[in-house]
TrEMBL record, chain A:
UniProt KW Flavoprotein keyword: yes
Lineage: Bacteria, Pseudomonadati, Pseudomonadota, Alphaproteobacteria, Hyphomicrobiales
Pfam families: Acyl-CoA_dh_1, Acyl-CoA_dh_M, Acyl-CoA_dh_N
Name this protein carries in UniProt: Acyl-CoA dehydrogenase family protein
Entry similarity comment: Belongs to the acyl-CoA dehydrogenase family.
Domain Acyl-CoA oxidase/dehydrogenase middle: 140-234
Cofactor(s) in the UniProt record: FAD
UniProt keywords, alphabetically: FAD, Flavoprotein, Oxidoreductase
InterPro entries: Acyl-CoA_Oxase/DH_mid-dom, Acyl-CoA_Oxase/DH_mid-dom_sf, AcylCo_DH-like_C, AcylCo_DH/oxidase_C, AcylCoA_DH/ox_N, AcylCoA_DH/ox_N_sf, AcylCoA_DH/oxidase_NM_dom_sf, Mycobact_Acyl-CoA_DH
Domain Acyl-CoA dehydrogenase/oxidase C-terminal per the UniProt entry, residue ranges: 246-399
TrEMBL record, chain B:
Residue ranges annotated for the Acyl-CoA dehydrogenase/oxidase C-terminal domain, each copy included: 229-376
Similarity-based family: Belongs to the acyl-CoA dehydrogenase family.
Protein's organism: Bradyrhizobium xenonodulans
Residue ranges constituting the Acyl-CoA dehydrogenase/oxidase N-terminal domain according to the UniProt record: 6-119
Cofactor(s) the protein requires to work: FAD
Domain of life: Bacteria
Signal peptide: none
Designated name of the protein: Acyl-CoA dehydrogenase family protein
Cross-referenced InterPro entries: Acyl-CoA_Oxase/DH_mid-dom (IPR006091), Acyl-CoA_Oxase/DH_mid-dom_sf (IPR046373), AcylCo_DH-like_C (IPR036250), AcylCo_DH/oxidase_C (IPR009075), AcylCoA_DH/ox_N (IPR013786), AcylCoA_DH/ox_N_sf (IPR037069), AcylCoA_DH/oxidase_NM_dom_sf (IPR009100)
Key words of the record: FAD, Flavoprotein, Oxidoreductase
Domain named Acyl-CoA oxidase/dehydrogenase middle: residues: 129-215
Length: 404, 379
């Protein structure tokens, strides 16, 4: 079938795009930005109070932003790069090849952007998307509540209609970076009488609004990237609702698919040297170059097999989506596997590091970067929906197994 | 290359699936087993298979084949895995055809490839000698004698060895077991003097033979590729076989899994469908994820083989290792979740379990391939 094949001229165009991209990246990505990220503070998050941790980080961000490559596949009118899916794949491959870091990390890019592109009205898209692309506004996610975690749809934060405004009262929890964020995308209950999923709306507002307060929560890793977030009569114009009032669950679910896809790929962002080589540095090798700990070697090799297989599956997921053959719940399958695998990676790193990996506060250990990262990964199988919930979704939505 | 089947590939899959599930469902294998069929597969069906162009799928068009790729061969293997159809496809159409195509000289190609394409010649690779797949451990001796060689030694688990018209035998022309140098591939006529073939009835009711060679004389023309330099040719041919077996295991895993999920939706205990129990739901979901990841890894390996066999080793190791682990898990969970029913011969599940065990050993198990990956990555 001729139409199933990519024509020769398209292939040639793509090759040209690859060559140009490679040349541009070579000329524009500073050497410092080709090294793996070592800690959370090494990542650029943008926002009103944005801080660059280094000059190369600023240069890299600005160059990529000017090309629209903080969001390469978004339309140009919204500040994106306007790349086709095939071109985007090429760009990602070329960046991975040289180990280039993402220029900007942002919930706006990973989660809100895709939801706005699908459900937002034109005014909302024009207002918010370019600022996300340019890293001007930093977003946080107001989903979970103390009594609505896995059972997210039981959320209770109320939004009562008052003229052209909603008045929002309630509490959110685990709101990552709420204390640094400029705006929040938030799930609120707009119809308490309706069935659980039918009375929820998806709304956007400024964290500087009157009545918003946040209180950080300390994690086992010693970081406190999350907050409890309180809303006390916060007034938000009704025009800030994305999609239809009371139909926010659709938007919420769509956004979660993107969040899950993003979290499942989290391991990749930290990639530096292969595990086997890192381990060789600390445990040494025998005469044949084999790791001097055969059990550890076996674990690493099995991990490498699974990681390579997952990478193929992630690539296939994108290709399936492009071909319109993806199951909407497939991101749950990937999220489950990707996060469990990333936890395994850090267990191996800890065991390869031995006593050296136990240092918590010292210059040598970069303030315990490795053990802190290890502890942080434990949240991967909780945030964005727990592994148990992901397996439940696969069982019900994909395998169509019976029950609630 | 996208990791999605093209329209032509989907059509190929559909037509293979239609034919195989119609003419060779699991009951076909069961019948061959129960009747102790001397051939172990249906010759009649093999001919219809050949008429569809499948036997010569990898044979170049100039030799009467369809000149398709490893991705397409994998598609057929996956369908074969779904019904466990015993057939010469793997040994003849994939492995032997690739060996001849990659290593053969003009005479060898034009003599054998057209016959493979028409389905009239069965061929197989005789490689392993010990209990585990260790290609470099080959010690079957080939000593120069006059213009040719004399072969002596034994091979175990030669797929289709009892019906093959042509054996491709790995032998040592120099060096010692374990070394890369000194391996040579020979084309051997199974009817030649000194060849003894014993069919082994294997656990999976598929076909294999033990072969002994005692001073078997072959001419210099029967060398496939270069004398002493067979390891590289063998690497590529084996990788092709591994990719194909991985695809068979994906089909097998997927089928056993589908049957298990159906069972979870129908079997009642404690007044509930057993699929309502979360303990089983989560295990089923985990297995689904495993299979999808393995499918992608296998497609990746087949694409890598299509792009360049010599550069596909790591992708193939990943696929074969994953496929072995996943298939083992799929059949074990299949039996377990079927409860007592899963343990009965009357039920088909056990056939999948037995075939998975054989596929796991064929061309290297998960440990073997995991080890290869570690070595390739230098640790
Ligand atoms: C690092 C981190 C960052 C986060 N960031 C944000 C954020 O920015 N914004 C936000 O809104 N939220 C955020 N969250 C919250 C996160 O989404 C919730 O923690 C998560 O959904 C689980 O809810 P819970 O903590 O209430 O656990 P619970 O729902 O109480 O779960 C407890 C345990 O019960 C299990 N369980 C619950 N229901 C089932 C079931 N049906 N079947 C099987 N097992 C079940 C769970 O798997 C878990 O093991 C974050 C969480 C973490 C850890």
């Amino acid at each position: 079938m001729a139409d199933a094949k990519i024509s020769d001229s398209e292939t040639a165009d793509l090759e040209q795009f690859r060559n140009e991209t490679r040349a541009w990246l070579d000329a524009n990505c500073p050497p410092e930005m080709r090294k793996p990220v070592t800690s959370d503070t090494d990542v650029f998050w943008g926002g009103r109070n944005a801080k660059f941790s280094s000059e190369p980080q600023r240069v890299w961000f600005e160059r990529m932003r000017d090309k629209g490559w903080t969001v390469p596949d978004w339309p140009r009118v919204y500040g994106g790069g306007g790349l086709s899916a095939a071109e985007h794949k090429v760009l990602r491959a070329e960046m991975a090849r040289m180990g280039a870091r993402p220029p900007l990390s942002s919930f706006g890019i990973w989660m809100l952007g895709p939801a706005l592109l699908k459900y937002g009205n034109e005014a909302q898209k024009k207002e918010h998307l370019p600022k996300i692309a340019a890293g001007e506004i930093r977003w946080c996610q107001g989903y979970s509540e103390p009594n609505a975690g896995s059972d997210l749809a039981s959320l209770q934060t109320r939004a009562e209609s008052d003229g052209d405004d909603f008045v929002i009262t309630g509490q959110k929890i685990w709101t990552s970076y709420a204390n640094y964020a400029d705006w929040i995308f938030c799930l609120v209950r707009t119809d308490p009488a309706a069935k659980k999923h039918d009375g929820i709306s998806f709304i956007l507002f400024d964290m500087a609004s009157k009545g918003v307060s946040t209180k950080p929560i300390l994690l086992i890793s010693g970081y406190s990237p999350f907050c409890e977030t309180f809303f006390d009569g916060v007034r938000v114009p009704t025009s800030h609702v994305v999609g239809t009032v009371n139909r926010g669950w659709d938007v919420a679910k769509y956004l979660l698919q993107h969040e899950r896809a993003m979290i499942s790929g989290m391991g990749e962002r930290g990639v530096g040297r292969p595990l086997g080589q890192i381990a060789a540095d600390s445990v040494g090798t025998d005469g044949q170059g084999k790791l001097d700990d055969s059990m550890l070697r076996g674990k690493i090799a099995t991990f490498d097999v699974d990681e390579a297989a997952l990478a193929a599956c992630a690539e296939r997921a994108v290709d399936l989506a492009k071909a319109g053959q993806a199951h909407p719940a497939f991101s749950s399958a990937m999220k489950y596997y990707g996060t469990e695998l990333n936890k395994r990676r850090y267990e191996i790193l800890m065991s390869a590091g031995g006593l050296d990996a136990l240092e918590w506060e010292s210059e040598r250990s970069k303030q315990g970067a490795r053990p802190r990262a290890w502890l942080r990964t434990k949240a991967n199988s909780i945030e964005g929906g727990t592994s148990e919930v992901m397996l439940g979704i696969v069982a019900k939505r994909i395998l169509d197994l019976p029950g609630a | 290359m996208a990791l999605v089947l093209t329209e032509e590939q989907s059509m190929l899959r559909d037509s293979a699936r239609g034919l195989i599930s119609d003419k060779a469902p699991v009951s076909h294998l069961r019948h061959l087993r129960d009747s102790k069929d001397p051939t172990g597969f249906s010759k009649e069906f093999w001919h219809s298979f050949a008429e569809m162009g499948f036997a010569g799928l990898l044979v170049p068009e100039e030799f009467g084949g369809s000149g398709l790729g490893f991705m397409e061969a994998g598609i057929i293997m996956e369908e074969i895995g779904r019904t466990l159809m015993p057939s010469p496809f793997l040994a003849t159409s994939v492995v032997a055809a690739s060996a001849l195509n990659r290593g053969g000289n003009a005479t060898q190609k034009s003599e054998f490839l057209p016959k493979i394409a028409s389905g009239s010649l069965l061929a197989t690779l005789a490689i392993d000698e010990g209990a585990k797949h260790r290609p470099l451990q080959t010690s079957l001796q080939a000593v120069r004698a006059g213009n040719g060689f004399k072969l002596s030694g034994a091979k175990a688990l030669v797929v289709d060895g009892h019906v093959a018209d042509l054996l491709i035998v790995a032998a040592r022309t120099a060096g010692a077991a374990g070394e890369r140098e000194g391996l040579t591939l020979f084309l051997v006529n199974p009817a030649a003097k000194g060849v003894a073939i014993e069919r082994t009835i294997m656990v999976d009711a598929h076909n294999a033979a033990r072969i002994e060679l005692a001073n078997v004389e072959v001419t210099a023309d029967s060398v496939l590729g270069e004398v002493d330099q067979g390891a590289t040719l063998l690497d590529g041919v084996l990788d092709i076989g591994r990719g194909a077996v991985a695809a068979e295991m994906v089909g097998l895993s997927d089928e056993v899994f589908n049957r298990t999920v159906e069972y979870l939706k129908n079997r009642k205990q404690f007044g509930k469908l057993i699929g309502e129990f979360q303990a089983l739901q989560h295990r089923a979901a985990e297995l689904y994820v495993d299979i999808e990841i393995t499918r992608a890894a296998t497609m990746k390996a087949l694409q890598a083989l299509d792009a360049d066999v010599a550069k596909a080793a790591s992708a193939v190791a990943v696929a074969k290792a994953r496929a072995g682990t996943t298939a083992t898990r799929a059949v074990q969970e299949g039996v377990q979740m079927h409860g007592g029913m899963g343990m009965t011969d009357q039920f088909d599940i056990g056939f999948f379990m037995k075939r998975a065990r054989v596929c796991e050993e064929l061309f290297g198990d998960a440990n073997y391939h995991t080890e290869q990956l570690a070595k390739a990555r230098g640790y």
